């Protein structure tokens, strides 16, 4: 069954592994008959600073942020490609989340003791790159960024399950590694998972 898939490249630079992975996934999914929308955070124009705004009076969303939210609401499956920088997300991608994942649109704060996710029924795939070796990321950092994305960001708004593909030592990959990574992403896109 064909899915509606939203792919967001979270790397702010136009040419990057994240951009390559986003387009590879999108092309493979489209090739299997899925409907795909792709956006690149570097192309979006918005103020990433939540600033002094309150949840009750947030800054009005710029058209690009509105388009991101509409694409998430439209999708059955959301794919995020991103590098890990300083243990977290690039500032512009984090700003997109801060500004657009708001109560009343992505989660409901009036439903009881705990906020209720408003975007249930969607799955997610995160394709992450880092320079940190995989074993070090798991043992020393305890996969902190995976946990944050799965539980505190994507899961918080209802995207579940969130699955991860993590390519490590991406700034200085071993010979042939990038080609293998691209093949893996192509396979994920073809399966729409």
Automatic annotation (TrEMBL):
It comes from the Bacteria. Its EC number is 1.-.-.-. GO terms for molecular function: oxidoreductase activity. Pfam families: Flavodoxin_2. Residues 3-175 form the Flavodoxin-like fold domain. Keywords: Oxidoreductase. The keyword Oxidoreductase applies. PANTHER family: NAD P H OXIDOREDUCTASE-RELATED, NAD(P)H DEHYDROGENASE [QUINONE] 1 ISOFORM 1. Belongs to the NAD(P)H dehydrogenase (quinone) family. This is NAD(P)H-dependent oxidoreductase.
């Amino acid at each position: 069954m064909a899915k509606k898939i939203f792919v967001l490249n979270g790397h702010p630079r136009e040419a990057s592994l994240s951009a390559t992975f986003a387009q590879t996934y999108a092309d493979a999914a489209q090739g299997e008959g899925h409907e795909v929308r792709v956006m690149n955070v570097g192309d979006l124009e918005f103020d990433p600073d939540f600033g002094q705004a309150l949840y009750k009076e947030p800054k009005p969303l710029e058209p690009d942020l509105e388009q991101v939210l509409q694409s998430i609401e439209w999708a059955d499956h959301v794919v995020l490609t991103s590098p890990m920088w300083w243990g977290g997300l690039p500032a512009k991608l984090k700003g997109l989340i801060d500004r657009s994942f708001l109560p009343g649109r992505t989660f409901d704060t009036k439903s009881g003791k705990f906020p209720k996710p408003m975007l249930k029924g969607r799955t997610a795939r995160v394709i992450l790159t880092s320079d940190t070796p995989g074993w070090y990321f798991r043992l020393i950092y305890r996969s902190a960024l995976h946990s944050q994305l799965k539980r505190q960001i994507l899961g918080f708004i209802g995207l579940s399950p969130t699955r991860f593909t993590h390519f490590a030592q991406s700034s200085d990959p071993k010979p042939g590694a990038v080609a293998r990574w691209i093949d893996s992403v192509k396979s994920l896109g073809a399966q729409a998972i």
